[in-house]
UniProtKB/TrEMBL annotation:
PANTHER family: SODIUM/HYDROGEN EXCHANGER, SODIUM_HYDROGEN EXCHANGER 7
Species this chain originates from: Streptococcus oralis
InterPro entries xrefs: Cation/H_exchanger_CPA1 (IPR018422), Cation/H_exchanger_TM (IPR006153)
Short name of any one Pfam family annotated for the protein: Na_H_Exchanger
Official protein name in the record: Na+/H+ antiporter
Length: 684
């Protein structure tokens, strides 16, 4: 039960972090998750939480590295194999010695071998931490490939260096030859295990296909179990589990692509599942990092045995040396390379700084230092504090430095061609209305496309324009409300029509995206209305409910339809005039679009389907008309691509959108219960 509570807590924290990041995009998601982790750590009793390193590496880091390897462009990475090997071995080992020596100089009470263990834990770049940064910033392709190659493979050398330092610490024996052979055995053994498990996975997949005993679920489970099985076997034979899962991921992706229905379905489901799993695992990494930071730092900072000023100074000095050593080593590599190729060194200055400040640390560093025996961990808690502090400061340094060296990623908001395509589809569907006896399903399909166009237009605008749009919708709602109340008081609309129109306005009110404060006010008003309704029902002994049960009084008649239509026309005149007067205050294009939308809905009053289409919610039984729209959309996309109006890449993205919409529309298990209930009430 305790495990279930922790799981629910973790999922809640991930949802909160994602929400905060969407509302406050200037706050990086990893930083939000770290802060939430620290907050959780404050409420956990000391010693209540302890990161199980082996489980963490097997269940979190292993699958993440497997997926990174599976998606990596290995051919592009191998073009930079020289600098990747250089970063994996010489840079990590020199960083281990430098950081260990400085830690021993600052805290001579710590054994030198223990300080070298700190250096080994902080040596490797954390690929998970780098991946989280690369989502926010645009890196040159060559830099990104170098860092991915380094991150995929460097944990092995860092862990071996740590094990050697730990052995020297606990036994007092150090052998360079033994360390080298241990590193070679760990890497070669990990490579072999990765090859064997990947080949076994492929053979099993081939066998299941040959006997026609496979399906989407079994294919997905085969893939998800591969990194877990690979890491487990590698650790059991005492070789690098990290290398093993990376090799398994590369080989899993390195196969000829077969265009079959099963492969297509498996690929779609796998991408979706992995996207969710990766988000959860990445989030858990930073939440755990925050928890560990708090749990490690609090007792040390409160202890009278340590000088807090020296503690903080040590963390910043170690972080400084970490980046200085990395920069000097990278500078030396580029200096030799440019001299040999007779190129100018200053052309690579930006690359060198990017490679330097992208070498951030993450939870793997803390997990590594936690591999020391519990007795030593309790005897030297300062080791954990130094690693945790440098990990946090290095990550924050990367967040602060990289925006000045790279371009922050921005979503492409040029939707003009997409809007033009949807407009052409809409016009074609409107032409098909002529001569069509059952217009209602086609109207619903057209409305769907108008809704998509509206969303694209809003996404095209900046935040201020989007807020203006919501303000204009609130203005329209206010005009509609005043018009309804006045018409009801003057007897221009009956009680049946009044309630139907009121329901339409409530639906409109729910669709307005307010600011947080305004949204809270809205929820308060809704709650107040509900309480007022309940009090009214108690005082009148259920008067409203009795009226609702009177089927004859609730059934809309021809007169009600006419009254609703007349009220809508009257409100439309006031709305169009009010919007026209605001053209100098708000953006003219937004007002024109809103006026056109209103007039388009008003134009169908004579069709006889106005109330069902605009005021009420109709059951979405227009699958044939929607499929017709998707066919036309694909056709127009092809024509735009053929005439070079859009790129092949953009056309591919638009086709994927159409495929997703079509798959969703074709779902047979769509829940139409709300529409069925409304329809049942109308019939009775």
């Amino acid at each position: 039960m305790e495990l279930l509570i922790y799981l629910i807590l973790f999922l809640t924290v991930l949802i909160i972090s994602s929400t905060v990041n969407k509302l406050l995009p200037f706050l990086p998601l990893p930083l939000v998750q770290i802060l939430l982790g620290v907050l959780i750590g404050l409420f956990l009793p000391n010693g209540e939480f302890h990161l199980n390193t082996e489980l963490f590496l097997a269940l979190v880091i292993g699958p993440l590295l497997f997926r990174e390897a599976e998606e990596a462009d290995i051919t592009a990475i191998l073009k930079h194999w020289r600098i990747i090997i250089y970063l994996i071995f010489p840079v990590i080992f020199l960083s281990t010695l430098s950081l260990g020596g400085l830690a021993h100089f600052l805290w001579d009470s710590l054994p030198l071998a223990a300080c070298l263990a700190v250096g080994a834990a902080l040596g490797p770049t954390d690929l998970v931490a780098f991946a989280s940064l690369s989502e926010r910033f645009t890196f040159p392709k060559r830099v990104s490939n170098i860092l991915k190659g380094e991150g995929l493979l460097n944990d092995a050398s860092g862990l071996v260096a740590f094990q050697v330092a730990l052995t020297a610490w606990t036994t007092g024996i150090f052998s360079l030859g033994q360390a080298g052979s241990s590193l070679a055995f760990s890497i070669v053994g990990g490579f072999a295990v990765g090859v064997v498990t990947a080949m076994f996975n492929r053979l099993l997949h081939t066998f299941l296909l040959s006997v026609r005993a496979t399906d989407i679920a079994s294919e997905l489970l085969l893939e998800l179990s591969l990194p877990l099985m690979t890491f487990f076997i590698a650790e059991e034979v005492h070789v690098s589990g990290i290398i093993a899962v990376v090799v398994a991921g590369i080989l899993k992706a390195s196969r000829f692509k077969k265009i079959t229905l099963l492969e297509a379905q498996v690929d779609t489901v796998t991408d979706t599942v992995w996207h969710t799993v990766t988000f959860m695992l990445n989030g858990s990494v930073f939440v755990l990092l925050g928890i560990e930071l708090e749990m490690i730092a609090e007792p040390i900072l409160r202890s009278p045995l340590y000088n807090n000023l020296l503690l903080v100074a040590s963390i910043f000095l170690l972080t400084l040396i970490l980046f200085v050593i990395r920069f000097l080593m990278i500078y030396g590599f580029y200096a030799l390379r440019t001299k040999r190729l007779k190129k100018k060194l200053h052309k690579y200055t930006k690359d060198m700084f990017l490679l330097t400040f992208s070498g951030v640390k993450g939870t793997v560093s803390i997990a590594t230092i936690l591999l020391i025996p519990t007795r030593l961990e309790q005897e030297y808690p300062l080791l954990l504090f130094l690693v945790a502090g440098v990990t946090l400061v290095s990550f924050l340094t990367g967040l602060l430095a990289l925006p000045h060296l790279s371009e922050e990623q921005e979503e492409n908001k040029d939707y003009l061609m997409h809007i033009a395509i949807l407009n052409e589809v809409t016009m074609e569907l409107e032409r098909e209305l002529e001569g069509n006896k059952n217009k209602l399903p086609l109207y619903a399909a057209i409305d769907n496309y108008h809704g998509r166009i509206e969303n694209l237009i809003l996404n095209q605008e900046n935040k201020d324009a989007q807020e203006d749009w919501e303000a204009l919708k609130l203005l329209i709602l206010s005009i509609e409300n005043d018009g309804l109340e006045q018409a009801y008081e003057e007897g221009k609309i009956g009680e049946r029509g009044y309630r139907v129109y009121q329901r339409y306005l409530r639906n409109m009110e729910q669709g307005i995206n307010r600011k947080i404060a305004s949204r809270l006010t809205y929820y308060f008003l809704v709650s107040f209305r509900l309480v007022r309704f309940l009090v009214h029902e108690l005082l009148t002994f259920g008067g409203t409910i009795r009226r609702l049960n009177d089927k004859e009084k609730q059934r809309l008649r021809a007169l009600d339809y006419d009254q609703i239509a007349e009220l809508y026309l009257a409100n439309t005149e006031i709305i169009i005039e009010s919007l026209e007067n605001l053209k100098g205050v708000y953006k003219s294009s937004l007002i024109s679009f809103m006026q056109d939308s209103r007039l388009r809905e008003t134009a169908i009053i004579g069709s006889g389907a106005f109330v069902e289409r605009v005021i009420n919610r109709i059951k979405p039984t227009n699958i044939d008309e929607m499929l017709r729209g998707y066919y036309l959309e694909r056709k127009v996309i092809f024509e735009y691509e053929e005439h070079k109006l859009i790129t092949a890449k953009y056309a591919k993205k638009l086709r994927q959108n159409v495929n997703n919409l079509e798959n969703y529309s074709l779902k047979e298990a769509a829940n139409t219960l709300p529409y069925d209930m409304v329809e049942l009430v109308r019939r009775k």
